[in-house]
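User: These chains co-purify. Model them together.
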Amino acid sequence: MTKKITIYTTTTCAYCDMVKKWLGSKGLTYDVINMDEEAPEVRQRVIEMSGAMTVPVTVVEEVVEEGEEPSFRDITVGWNPAKLGAAVRDMVAA
Amino acid sequence: MADTKEMHDLVIIGAGPSALAAAVYTTREDLDTVLYEKGVVGGLAAITDWVDNYPGFIKGISGLDLAQQLQGQAERFGADIRLGEVTAITDEGKQKRIETTDGTVWAKAVLISTGSDYKKLGVPGEQEYYGRGVHYCATCDGAFYRDKKLVVVGGGNSAVQEALFLLKFATHIDLLVRSEVKASEVLQHELDKRVEEGKITIHLGVTTDEIVGEAAEGSTFKKVTKVLATKNGEKVEFVTDGVFVFIGLLPNTGFLKDTEIKLDELGFVLTDKNLQTNVPGVFCSGDVRSGATMQIASAVGEGATAALKIREFIELQERNQVTPVGELV
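Assistant: Joint model of the two components:
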């Protein structure tokens, strides 16, 4: 299964910076969606997805074709290296 | 058989401004220095939106930029910053054993620079709605409150500074202050301007009692809707979309409670005038130290002082001498 990582951030979020550095230290690449630059609908989508009004929100999920639902999706709210580590374990090994 | 024990000259617990300043000094002295950080590198400074009183920056600097500069400077000289938590320190005489979430390491000296964290209100609803309307980091979560109404609890520098920052997003802020506003003159002046503009309303003598939330119609997502409080013995309520809490600081010394390192009655670490604790070779600097001024500039200065005293300690120890522990203050 091919996975991708997306980090939802804000410009001034230090914890988001920690997530980026941590993923970088594992040699992982990721997309960044900066909530400061996005429409309100994106913020609402992140709230619904994460169940929280906070960043960072890091989504690790299966890469699928448009319209398909990924069979794997892990959402980490906040700076939580233990949880993130479990979500990306096979990506680091690959 | 090879000795696999991981030994360092210095282990610094924490990676805030004080720790990073100390690391700049010790690494430049060629002391092998490892830092352990369980939260965010840069500490509370990194989540402060703007730092206006740190010398050397004419226009001020964002807390995140300052943290990144400090980290980059320390790493340039070889500081090894690890993401992990220290769970115990044991004094084994000439070396200290440090238990971490990544295993055990030893060091000739230890510097405790774990800083402090924002206090919680300890009221019903606070834990339940954490991240869903209750927040302690304006720079992280402020963006969720564009065109919304907020409550900020607290009346010190942090509360006022972060309330002013939150006005980048929020239309109005109710500032709930238990006694009186105790912010610096500069912040007070800015606050007064926002009050005149009708953007902030200050409520003095208010004690927060409960944070209440509910799900909007057609949604299962429960979030904060109001704050219940008491003013002059009367129950009052503030309708809001979210609450940011900045009511003071608590030292990060939980991991020291089963050690012999002495703390003051509030849990801050006691040191002598050389910043050494009652355990020889264990030093302390920054916000976590008893008597700290809770200023970034002071924390950085203490970090530098501690580094010089640690170098002296290690040099003496190598000659089988000790730096005596002075009177704890």
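Strands of chain A lie at 3-9, 31-34, 57-62, 73-77.
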